[in-house]
Amino acid sequence: MYMNILSHEVSIYGKTRFYYAQINIGHPPRPYFVDPDTGSDLTWLQCDAPCVHCTQAPHPYYRPNNDLVPCKDPLCASLHAGDHRCDDPGQCDYEVEYADGGSSLGVLINDVSLVNLTTGVRITPRLTIGCGYDQIPGPSYQPLDGVLGLGKGKTGIVSQLHSQGLIRNVVGHCFSSRGGGFLFFGDDVYDPSRVVSTPMSRDYRKHYSPGYGEVIYGGKPTGLKNLLVIFDSGSSFTYLSSQAYEGLLYLVTKELSGKPVKEAVDDKTLPFCWKGRRPFRGIRDVSKYFKPLALRFSSGWRSKTQFEIPLEGYLLISSRGNVCLGILNGTEVGLQNFNIIGDISMQDKMVIYDNEKQTIGWTPANCDRPPRPDAMSI
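Given the sequence above, the corresponding structure tokens read:
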């Protein structure tokens, strides 16, 4: 089963690409553009219930049916830590907060999603989603209809489809650096023999995390280690905690010493940009000044795996022709205890979250088209 990914370029930190997917919900089914987010569980749509505070969206707000999820439903309980009170037994209220400070408040409802098989068969699984009637946008807000929660929790779309016997409990994505890409559900779209995998952390189960990693720069260990890492497709950029960020910035700056590249203080595209003797047209123009990155994880007894990050995975060219660092200081935006691998570092890779084997895997891929024609689209 796969879902096409679309993309759009906007001016957030300069010219930045964000990715979104289309889902079809309701009877009759209506299209909605959503942010595919492996960092959260709940799928929700901006909802005319009526809406207290909604943001600009590409489609009319979702009109909910009356199939409310009761407060005692297990999916409702999974959204609330510990014993949650039922102020209204007939409905399940929710509030989700995101790392950038954005949030959505609403109620859970059940509705059908139209799934088209490429064989021509249509199925309509019943899904539990959020009817979000009060949104606070964070600084990374995009004008979308909602969020597609791909996290590992019970309310996640992956868990729901798996519990209905439609897929194995596996989800993955492939974001193209040229724009677009695809999501996939189940394990029938990739060759496992080509995938590099590492176990999911047993100590940090809330998100897709391989546990603690170490930064490798130019193939050499940096001493920047014991970094708790999360794979988060809902984040456009990659974030390191303050100490690791400053350490990496020092290494990059040291590497540029004596080379015809100077800091472009007047370019506010991202916190750190550099200019050459003439404007850079692409990442290829700066390949002699920067080195590739990697994150190294322990994957077993004396065994380690590396998530390779080429120059395109952490640098971008600004509209002024300068090269900018696409890794940001996570501590400054409130990410106190973990580091995020965002979309910029996952481009042109198939990234696979296997909740049955409890592994995270990746392999280089052409993300411009799904690899298998005998799949499903949503």
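The radius of gyration is 21 Å. Try to locate this feature in the token string yourself.
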